[in-house]
Amino acid sequence: MLPIIEQCSNNHGGKPRSSIHSMTNSQKSNLVNRTKKFLKGICLTILSGLFFSITTLVVKYVKDVSPGTTAGFRYFGIIILSFPLALESPQPIFGMSGTYLWIALRGLAGGTSVFCRYSALHYMSMADSTIIILSMPVFVFVFARIFLKEHFGPYHVLALFMSIAGIIFASKLEFIFGKPVQEDDLVINNTISTMITTTTTTTMATTTITDKLFYANETTNKTSDHHIDGQKRLIGLSDQLIGTLYSLGATFVGCFVYVIIRKLKHVDKYVILFNFSIISMIEMVMIDYFFYDIQLPTTGYTPYLIFLIGILSFYAQLLLTRAIQIEEAGVVSVVRTSSE
Length: 340
Description:
mainly alpha, 2 domains
């Protein structure tokens, strides 16, 4: 609701037309300024959502590169583009006193959220992942109520339960909906039955059954997706469930990004971008080093896609940061997800 209508309705029993004429020039000026700020925040959020959507689409086409490497190059691009602008800021380039911890948390939360979101795209369709992440505004309202004391009413509670139901349907959990029978499974089962009846191929049958139970040897992993296949065999989870867990991680951790930026609303936007990107990039390098084999893009069009991700991410984060500094975190999260 626009601030000018909301303010007038509260003061004069829901009669905005007559109450505007009874206001002083100072009150009218303040309400006009608030309305302009509200509309500016909404427009910035819509543009930010557009850039984020394009970035997600580009990431889907990045092949043979781990999610950590992709996210690391994303933040490297933000660092390069924000550094000269942060130097021109009147504030210290590494932030003002008392903001270091919040900026560090912004970097950790942002990096973790992006890593989970990119990882989810390796296991499930972009549509299913987006459905889960679109529930973020409801949880942002919850955290904003706890940490920022923003409004949270009965409609938000209803939206919370509806979002949880939507997540359950999007995740397609096997213990709720059952496991779908696929043609490939029938072929594998027939192959196993045939191989068991022959004595000379007993070893091959054992290997096939073991592979079906996700305990195959590491030498059977494909080179391009060795880290994904390894995770599947170690924990024995389906692609859909792994993607759901990653999407939920991106959703919950991403909620803190809105709250933290709102806390840093007096810090220059370029200073925030520069510092949190450094922390996020370090986090991504560490994740890649300890959990994945770092794979740099070398051939095809992948390097160009990585370069494009860095540019798009800079503008997406810049617009989002400024929008949250202007408008409430819950409102911005709703508009942003609505525009994706």
